[in-house]
Design goal:
Elements (H helix, E strand, L loop, with lengths): L2 H15 L1 H8 L3 E6 L2 E6 L2 H10 L1 H10 L6 E6 L2 H10 L8 E2 L35 H11 L9 E5 L5 H15 L5 E5 H13 L3 H9 L3 E5 L8 H16 L3 E6 L11 H7 L3 E5 L4 H18 L9 H8 L4 H18 L5 H7 L1 H7 L5 H11 L4 H5 L5 H17 L4 H7 L5 H17 L1 H15 L1
Parallel strand pairs: 2-3, 5-8, 5-9, 6-7, 7-8
Antiparallel strand pairs: 1-2, 3-4
Helix pairs in contact: 1-2, 1-4, 6-7, 8-9, 12-13, 12-14, 17-19, 19-21, 20-21, 21-22
Bound molecules: adenosine-5'-triphosphate (ATP).
């Protein structure tokens, strides 16, 4: 790195961090070396190295990259006193033998960052997001938004069931944008926090500040937007914020547990606004994705517990048996590793079954025909007796076929058994119903959506 480049980076940092922070944290830094994409800086104390890592390393990294210096990692080292003296006298950096700061100090992975919204989780980056069929569209859309540049769809609306990676993707976008363009004002917060801030502003008579704050962001991300459904004044304010930002061509990213049109008690004008951009969903994980996620988590754990051994077949077993959300999968693995490291044993199938007995039992829960009938009747707003009864009008027949289809998919009951539980119907009637829904699922978007919602509700 040339002196000129370093000068430019410092100037950039002064602007981004403000004069006070710059004087306190950046001025004392001394550039030491750049090898293999790792930039090393000398700092006077451990405390300073740690502070810089946690707070400014990613900003420094992106300033360096913007100045054309190819860096993928930054480390801070504490120069010994003598070296520091010699260096000060000679005006150069010591060549080697500097003490490493206690905590590994690198900036290839971002640390926690305080945005005007909620803090971002350092683990939720793109490189830790495993892509598979169920989430590839959502991932591609998130990547596109994270590239920055002209807004191509607004908003990006991500939806899906619990623990499928919506928050992870939103944080990943924020990290990426922050690294690429630290000047951008990227705000991530949950819809609940949005409401809380709004209510607080009303109470403190600071609505002008509130409006100004939210209208001055470059990228706004609101997680779990279904939360504001039924909360009239928050919805109203959200609507105005949304419009103001879209008018200024600022990117908005929203997540929810279901599609915009499916969120009850959300004003129609908001629903239609939310549908204006790109709406993509995260599908429930499939076996391959679960296995991929487990493998990537194991790789990360191995760095932490290098001595741990995992027997062949354990991950496959878990990917098969735990079919709920990724959070549950992660929790199971964490528990397994903690346990195995405590007892100092290899993770075998037996140890896995032992240690995760309750989790495995919970995901073993059998879904019954009755449960399906009840949920479907509720969903289509008909009486359970009409679902099972003899009437053949369309408004009962279609939900009945949906329920039959779900029974076939989600239980181990045979067609004659299912028929019996639907008021003693013949197995050919069940077969016809199942086929009809299979057809509609492909042709009719609404039907596909209904089936997906019902399946999720039943699995929850
Ligand atoms: N594809 C993936 N690769 C790696 N980790 C994932 C993936 N999907 C989800 N996770 C992990 O699963 C956990 C839950 O994900 P996240 O919090 O993003 O879910 P969510 O969809 O926002 O759920 P909720 O509706 O509960 O808010 C996180 O720890 C996240 O890192």
């Amino acid at each position: 790195m040339t002196q000129e480049q370093w000068g430019q980076i410092r100037q950039d940092l002064r602007q981004v961090l403000g004069q006070n922070n710059f004087t306190a944290w950046i001025e004392p830094l001394q550039f030491q070396s750049l090898h293999d994409g790792i930039a090393t800086f000398n700092v006077p104390t451990n405390f300073m190295g740690n502070y810089l890592t946690q707070n400014y390393a990613d900003t420094i990294l992106s300033s360096m990259n913007s100045a054309g210096v190819a860096v993928r990692r930054i480390q801070f080292v504490v120069a010994s006193r003598q070296q520091a003296k010699a260096q000060a006298a000679a005006g150069t950096a010591p060549a080697a033998a500097a003490n490493k700061v206690e905590t590994p100090v690198s900036a290839d992975r971002p640390g926690d960052m305080d945005l005007p919204g909620a803090p971002l989780d350092a683990r939720f980056s793109f490189d830790r997001f495993v892509v598979g069929k169920p989430n590839e569209l959502a991932h591609a859309a998130a990547r596109r938004v994270a590239e920055g540049g002209p807004v191509s769809f607004n908003p990006l609306f991500l939806y899906g069931g619990v623990g499928l990676g919506k928050t992870h993707l939103m944080h990943a976008i924020a990290w990426e944008l922050h690294l690429k363009s630290p000047h951008l004002n990227v705000v991530y917060l949950s819809a609940e926090q949005f409401m809380y801030r709004f209510v607080q502003a009303l109470r403190d008579r600071k609505m002008m500040d509130f409006k100004e704050l939210f209208r001055s962001v470059d990228v706004l991300m609101v997680d779990d937007v279904q939360f504001i459904a039924g909360k009239d004044s928050t919805q109203e304010e959200f609507f105005h914020t949304f419009n103001a930002l879209v008018d200024q061509n600022k990117q908005i990213i929203i997540s929810a547990d279901r599609a915009p049109g499916e969120i009850k008690d959300l004003e129609d004008r908001i629903k239609s606004r939310l549908q204006c951009g790109l709406v993509v969903d995260l599908h429930p994980t499939d076996y391959e994705l679960r296995l991929g996620i487990l493998q990537s988590k194991v790789d990360a754990y191995k760095l932490q517990y290098p001595e741990l051994q995992i027997a062949p077949g354990v991950l496959e077993f878990l990917a098969h048996r735990i079919s709920t959300n990724v959070r549950v999968l992660e929790g199971a693995l964490t528990r397994l590793f903690a346990f195995a490291s405590l007892v100092g044993r290899e993770i075998t199938l037996e140890l896995t079954q032992d240690c995760l007995a309750d989790v495995l039992r919970a995901s073993d829960r059998k879904i019954t025909v009755e449960e399906i009938q009840r949920k479907v009747a509720e969903h289509f707003n008909i009486r359970l007796s009409d679902m099972i009864g003899p009437k053949r009008v369309r408004s009962f027949a279609r939900p009945r076929q949906v329920a039959m289809y779900l029974c076939k998919q989600m239980t181990t009951r045979s067609l004659p058994e299912i028929g019996r539980r639907f008021g003693g119907r013949d197995h050919t009637t069940v077969m016809h119903g199942v086929r009809k829904i299979e057809e509609l699922k492909i042709k009719d978007h609404q039907m596909a959506e209904d089936l997906e919602l019902l399946r999720r509700a039943l699995e929850a």
